[in-house]
Amino acid sequence: MHALDVDWDHPTDPRPGPRLDHVRAYVTTAGADGHLWHGVPTLLLTTVGRASGRTVRTPLIYGEDAGRFIVLAAAYGAPDHPRWYDNLTAHPEVRLQVGAASFKASARTATRAERETYWDMMTALWPPFEDDQAAARPREIPLVILERP
Predict the structure, then answer these.
(1) CATH no. for residue 115?
(2) What are the b/e assignments for 106-145, b being 16+ CB within 10 Å?
(3) Total Cβ atoms within 10 A of residue 40
(4) What's the whole-model pTM score?
(5) What is the percentage of the chain residues whose pLDDT exceeds 90?
(6) Domain range spanning residue 63?
């Protein structure tokens, strides 16, 4: 699939419920309502479905370091990686909305050293990530680096 074939403007949003409410509030207010969620910063990650080729939008807690955005593929401690993570491993070109700003980014799984560097930052932002990792064992929760091209 070529980047020109992707419909970035009409992503699929989460199913009805709190995550969909979060995404809708974030989008309609340009992040004024939704960027901070339970006191932590969130972004909207849009990936390309690895099988469908359709775009999918997901709200995620993020950390930031030197212009790079860091997210965890925690999936609430599920035994499998979330679909959005599988999508970006197949198609690393993504779109982000961080507050009012929307832009292209490239996604990659952090190296072991990067994971060690950023894990504490992410669990300081959202301590339940530690519980998610304990529940996910033996799966190691991937840490993802998102960077502007």
Answers:
(1) 2.30.110.10
(2) ebeebeeebbeebbeebbebbeebeebbebbeeeebbbbb
(3) 13
(4) 0.94
(5) 96
(6) 3-147
